[in-house]
Amino acid sequence: MKKIVVLFIIIFIWIIPDLSGQGNQKKMTMYSVEDGLSQSSVHSMIQDGFGYLWISTANGLNCFDGKDITCYFPPVGPGSSYNVNRIRKTLCDEIGNLWIGTDEGLFFFNRITNEIEDPFPEIKEIKSGYCYPLFLVNDTIHALTSDSSVLSINLHDHQFRTTHFESAFYWIISTTDNFEEIVGISATSSIVFFGIKSSALSIQTFKFDIQLFGNLSDIKFYKKNKYFILFHDEILLFNRDSGTLEPPLETHIPHEKGKSIFKSLKQLKSGEVWIGSSNQGIFVLDSTLTYRYQISGEADHKLPVRNISTIFEDKQSNIWIGTDGYGLGLLKPDNTGPGLVNHESSTIGNLSSDFIWSFYEDDERMLWIGTANEGINKWNRKSNTIENYLLSNKKTFPTPNDIYSICPLGEDELLIGTSCGIWLFDKKTHLSYPISNLFNDQNIRRTTSIIPIEKNQFIAQIQNRCFIISENEKSWMFDTIQIPDSVIINLTYKSVTGNIFGFTGDGIYKITGGEIDFTPFIYRSGRMMIKINSIAELTNGFIYAATDKGLVVLDFNGQITRIYSTSDGLPNHYLYGILADRNENLWISSNRGLSHFNPVSEKFDNYGMTDGLQSFEFNSGATFKNDAGEMFFGGINGFNYFHPDSLHSLKFPPTVEITGLKVNDLAYKADSSMMAKKLVSFEYSLNTITFEFKAIEFTNPEYIIYSCFLEGYDKNWVDAGPSNFIRYSKLPPGKYKFSVKAAGRQGNWGQSPAEINLVIDRPIWMKSWFIIAMTFLAIGIVVVTVYYLSTVKIRKKIAILEHQREISLIHTRISSDLHDDIGSGLSKLAMLSDTAILNLTDHPEGVKRLKNISANARRLIDQLRVIVWTLNPQYDQLESLISYIHQQAGDFLDNFPIKVTFTLPEKIPSVSVSPEFKRNIHYTVMEALHNAVKHSGSEEIFIDLKVHENRLEISVRDTGTGFDPTQVSGFGNGLHFIQKRMEDIKGTFTINSQKGKGTIIHITADL
């Protein structure tokens, strides 16, 4: 029992810092008048049945769909003042109508005209002052009027009654849990309950000694006949069963009494209670009313700290914060994006560098973070602080403060892989010293990974080679693994079975065991070059690799079975890291953000900058998963961390509505709300229809996509992408049904699409009565014509018919000749070709010719790909040209034992280039590479691409034999073609070569 208690205490101490720090990660999106709000003072919010958020402000009503804010104002009539625009409360009835309470009466929002109207002009009682709609029951709306009366209006017959109370009421702002009563505070410091379901209002009053009137901020139902009362700087809990006020709650809250008042309260679906104050942010209590944390409103939270007037939770669990004078704030659920640590976002202390190379978390929950040039950082997850340590203060190059790998050595020490070899770091004293200075070759330093294999024995990848390092009584030994020195190891990996593998560009070395075994990469029966940056093994035996060519499925025998690229949903083909979660879904970092991949559905869900990523670009090696399943991905601007279960659990499908039509590209004015309309009908000439629709989604509106289907016209659902309209041109007469559905960021399509029936009427000549009339008319014409031909013009008609018959016979004969002669000849040629192919196995010469035909076909296919790329306007950007040259040159040189070094511009301007420019530049570079490979005998080629202002400069340099250009007639055919191509685009071409000193081909062209 004692052990259980101790374990509970340890777990409690462990969890508490996380709970207190939870609020630190909340980020708020603010909406103000600059974003479309009609006014910055928000009084209340509701969400209607269609999903729209309606925001009542001090100057107008606002409708928000996640992207756009639309403002509406009540009509200004005789005697109206500015207060008519002060919207206090808004109520949505069962059929989606909106009832609006203002400081000058009750109004109605008409969804047909999209305007606020006066619904009951004959009822003068609701025009004398403020009117706040509170609740709708049995087709009757109940509202509080300025003379302390409850006004009840039947929405069908417009019959109304007024119940007046002797004592003035301060406010009526809450209902009971069963929606049968309204709760109010009277001027006599009493809590009053009004029954609203009975024909006559029932009243129950509880009077108190304290002065409630004038100091009340909010009153809300809690549970089991208990109510919160926000009373100036106190939070009272009223127990209706006992009729007493329980002890104030704010004694448990870090609230400065007398300096800030409580303004609003909301109990969320999770049971949490959120309390907004005048200038101390929001206090969060759990369902037992125990204080958890404070959303303090510091600058990094972008939270208005003053006058939080209302708090609202929508259907997607987004929290909306209304303020009095500071606009509207949106707090998305905690699981919509990963945590971020860098200089800009961190509230726990700064990283020494935002460029991250590596991670390791020890048993004490200290996260060790390797940076570029700035040493190692320790993030204490319990105290939520970061400390920075340098391995050496000496300014050397390379520096030992480039931390590429971190590996534990016992409980108190770490092995650190750096640019200067391996260092030993003491976690307690924070002292460090190098242990790999036994290497004679000072060029062998950069240690990218250290993998434990046995006690005090490791495999280290140093400068793309592998070494076994071991420690014995503080003495270190280094043994080289016998892999050829010319082989470049891109990744060293320890499998779940304990085997060690070294991945190269063209295959796999199995390092464990007696011999070093090599197997090449095989894809579709051919060898393949690929760079593997990270590996994830699944329990079903599948192995997934993050590579420079996408997500690759392979085994340890080098067999590649599948490659997922950008065409399959990846945002970028160059991948850095990969981790598998407990559900065996994959999380992948790339050059374009972070991706989630489900191997079963084969779908990617991509995260970008709007989801809180440190940047689009991540780093190789900066990938780590701790024992709890939490994941860390480092990049060039800090690192992101998250637990996959919480991050990927938000799957609310967006609702979608048909919002409008265009007929022959002109706006259609409906006689009722488009969202409620079920059928539209148009005459045959009005047959170009544009359907407009909108999805309501607040968490990630930028990821909304649509799919449409017009039954009777479309064969399958049509992908509309992010476009919120679709146009059908010149529809034939008939009956149709249009359906549209929307999906959010996880591809979660809504199950109930919005639908509307469409009828295009037939023209008059296609209607039954018209067809019958025209039939009788045609019969009459035929009778008259026959009579005429049988008398006066019969002979002439016969002659014409004879002439037409002769022409018909000629046509028949020509058709027969074409069929019998040319047709049979083509058939005979086809049969002879088939017979020749079947007999080629005994004719080697024929086989040789077929091989030549195949080779020529492949060359034509390659040329066709270049032509297609050249002509496709999608790739008419300079960035695409540079990317294509990079890819094509790399693919070409991969076929030769030549090392290639690319130098690409850091920033490429957004410039369009012509197809002729692309074609000539591409062929020039490839011709230069072809000459270098064919003639130079070089082992290394350097390709340098630069952009200076409006000029592109490209140089191709080899270290081969070189030649004397003056002694090559016409510079050779290849060089002649290069010069001709550059002249075609008004570019320049120079060549600099000397025997034994290599060759440089330099081209320039104006953009």
Topology overview:
Layout lengths: L1 H21 L5 E4 L10 E6 L5 E5 L2 E5 L4 E4 L14 E6 L5 E5 L2 E6 L4 E3 L13 E7 L2 E6 L3 E6 L5 E5 L4 E7 L5 E6 L3 E6 L6 E6 L8 E6 L4 E6 L2 E6 L4 E3 L15 E6 L5 E5 L4 E4 L5 E5 L12 E6 L5 E5 L4 E4 L7 E3 L14 E6 L4 E6 L4 E5 L4 E5 L13 E7 L3 E6 L2 E6 L5 E3 L12 E8 L2 E6 L2 E8 L2 E6 L10 E4 L5 E4 L3 E4 L6 E4 L1 E2 L2 E2 L4 E6 L5 E5 L2 E5 L4 E6 L10 E6 L5 E5 L2 E6 L4 E5 L10 E8 L5 E5 L2 E5 L1 H4 L7 E9 L2 E2 L11 E4 L6 E8 L8 E7 L6 E4 L3 E4 L5 E10 L10 E7 L7 H22 L4 H45 L5 H28 L6 H16 L5 E5 L11 H22 L3 E9 L2 E8 L13 H13 L3 E6 L5 E8 L1
Parallel strand pairs: 46-51, 61-67, 68-69
Antiparallel strand pairs: 1-28, 2-3, 3-4, 4-5, 6-7, 7-8, 8-9, 10-11, 11-12, 12-13, 14-15, 15-16, 16-17, 18-19, 19-20, 20-21, 22-23, 23-24, 24-25, 26-27, 27-28, 29-58, 30-31, 31-32, 32-33, 34-35, 35-36, 36-37, 38-39, 39-40, 40-41, 42-43, 43-44, 44-45, 46-47, 48-49, 49-50, 50-51, 52-53, 53-54, ...
